[in-house]
Amino acid sequence: MKVTLFSTCLVDMFQSNVGKATVEVLERLGCVIDFPESQVCCGQPAYNSGYVNEAKEPMKRMIETFKDAEYIVTPSGSCAAMFKEYPHVFKGDEKWEQKAISIAERTYELSQFIVDVLKIEDVGARLEGTAAYHTSCHMTRLLHVTDAPFTLLKHVKGLEVVPLPGAHNCCGFGGTFSVKMGQISEQMVDEKVMSISGTKADYLIGGDAGCLINIGGRIERKGMPIKSMHLAEVLNSR
Amino acid sequence: MPMKIGTENFKERVDSGIQNDFMRAAVSGAQERLHGRRLAAAEELGNWEEWRSHGEEIRQHVLENLDYYLDQLAENVVKLGGHVFFAETAEDANTYIKEVIQKKNGKKVVKSKSMVTEEINLNAALEEVGCEVLETDLGEYILQIDEHDPPSHIVAPALHKNKEQIRDVFKEKLGYTKTENPDELTAHVREILREKFLHADIGITGCNFAVAETGSISLVTNEGNADLVTSLPKTQITVMGMERVVPTYEELEVLVSLLTRSAVGQRLTSYITVLTGPKQVHEVDGPEEFHLVIVDNGRSKILGTEFQSVLQCIRCAACVNVCPVYRHVGGHAYGSIYSGPIGAVLSPLLGGYEDYKELPYASSLCAACTDACPVKIPLHELLLRHRQVIVEKEGKAPISEKLAMKAFGLGAASPMLYKFGSKIAPSAMSPFTTGTSISKGPGPLKAWTESREFPAPNKERFRDWFKSRDKEGEKS
């Protein structure tokens, strides 16, 4: 199966390991990976700050980049949800609306793609320890992917996923919110980190690089012995 | 209390919220209790999503036909012998209510809980003309005797106070001598209020929903105070936001069920009262005179705009109770009697962007509010629309941000520029980098690195790795 990878700009620039893990896991599951070089950012930082016109340029670029892809797969619930939002952004735009709908229909978050399209629940991964899983807001509430990550993690040998109190609360990332409302964001991430630390988990696992950079950054600042890992990295552990 | 509360700026309000440990403990405790209860009450119905869609449909239908239903409502109230006044502004509403009270030579006013009378600052207007105005909802009463402390939550106005603080207010203001036990606190207030109810000559209520077909108004409470407000005084004045109307009892039932389950996780509240006009000849109790004041105060300007769905709101505060921002800053930080996500959407619409321009940004867009709303208001999307208006029409966004976003638009849209930018990022950031992270970031990163590490850009980007790997593949 041919998969066109949408790496996301955060993974491309800051979390390249997540991109590598995504490629290796999908290849192991029999996919052939294509990475179009012309991909940029999905436009979310500008869009979510109210700069809709500025956001449309990278969005158009992304639509062009992925127009011939069969399956667009991304290791991010938030960026996948942004692609799903494109039809609303270009509503009524004769030139772009249909193309936007077409891109949105073919977009999958990584765990969703593995479970729902490849129909695989056990990717043959192994990781010893206990983990708390962060259910990121956009993945669950906008993309409605709630079970797939847990289904995959359940089959990771040696790994026990422990319940995370207050799991429904946002980690405080929110893109530009994290700097624009830094003082509020700090309180939110601090509470999240304290909940994670209370579980005594060895790992914090999440499916969105943004949340992981946020929570992981706070864990590192506090010097806590918790390792943050992206779902793709966990699935690629052997 | 007008809609706008406090004189501090947004940052100061947020700071004092964050530093208020008592308030934060009270709010997070309440959020956790209400979260579980709301989910259980919704689950119990078995088909919550259908209920929500039905609720949304009812509210949308009413808003699309608001003129028709308000007309029908007014006609039916008048038929019953009541009076109806359409108030375009807060001032119009207050002037009318003052006139009614003065005509009756009324002095003693008892009120049940009403957000719209807070919005129009009715109490101050009545006190100016010599009325003694008493709030009889326990939460509102606590705030009123505590030097008019503003409400911090649309359902539980005194949510920001714990029982020890309430005991202290009672000690200071009422000469209370007992403990912080809620039963004792409540019993003490009940003694005081009973006496006041008996001597009141005007009763003022809000209105959860008015029923157009019958000319009725409904009140949803847990304390029964609204029933005393509407049965003892000879004159009753009900003040409602113009959008709070339903066609018939059938829709009332659906919305009340959505309201009580979403607000407090109850199937029904202790009292759900429906009142139809003044006392009729064959009736034994009720007010002799009934006035319905229908308040616009900026609402009709929202109709027909991209923000119309905010008027679907039934004031349950489910969005407030799940909001992680509200959880940490509390209601007063919003600077409006309408706090939380609904307040962040509604306050700039009713009060203007000048006073409330920060509120649409006080959200991580986590969408917990949108998920919780029983009438499906897309709250986080409306916050985004506000941001767009602020940037494009109001011109209130900072210039530095505008430039950055302009650059983002150019940079992110051009693969060449993007590749170049991301390529040089590690060296551009190297003066701030120790190992793999940045502890003291420049520019906008400063706000981040005050509390968190930020990762240094990867020297080998993912795209470089992918490309080199392809080349290796070609070689072998």
Can you describe this structure?
The complex is a heterodimer of chains A (238) and B (476). In chain A, 50% of the residues lie in helices and 16% in strands. By secondary structure, chain A is an alpha/beta fold. Chain A folds into 2 domains: 115 residues, Rossmann fold (3-Layer(aba) Sandwich); 115 residues, Rossmann fold (3-Layer(aba) Sandwich). Chain A has a 4-stranded parallel beta sheet, with helices on both faces. A 4-stranded parallel beta sheet of chain A has the order 6-5-7-8, sandwiched between helices. In chain A, helix 7 crosses helix 9 and helix 11 packs across helix 12. The two termini of chain A are 23 Å apart. With 476 residues, chain B is an alpha/beta fold. Chain B has 2 domains: 292 residues, Rossmann fold (3-Layer(aba) Sandwich); 77 residues, no CATH class. In chain B, helix 3 crosses helix 12, helix 16 runs parallel beside helix 19 and helix 20 packs across helix 21. Chain B is elongated, with a radius of gyration of 26 Å. Classes of the chains: A alpha/beta (238), B alpha/beta (476). Chains A and B meet through helix 1, helix 2, helix 3, helix 4 and helix 8 of A and helix 1, helix 15, helix 18, helix 19 and helix 20 of B.
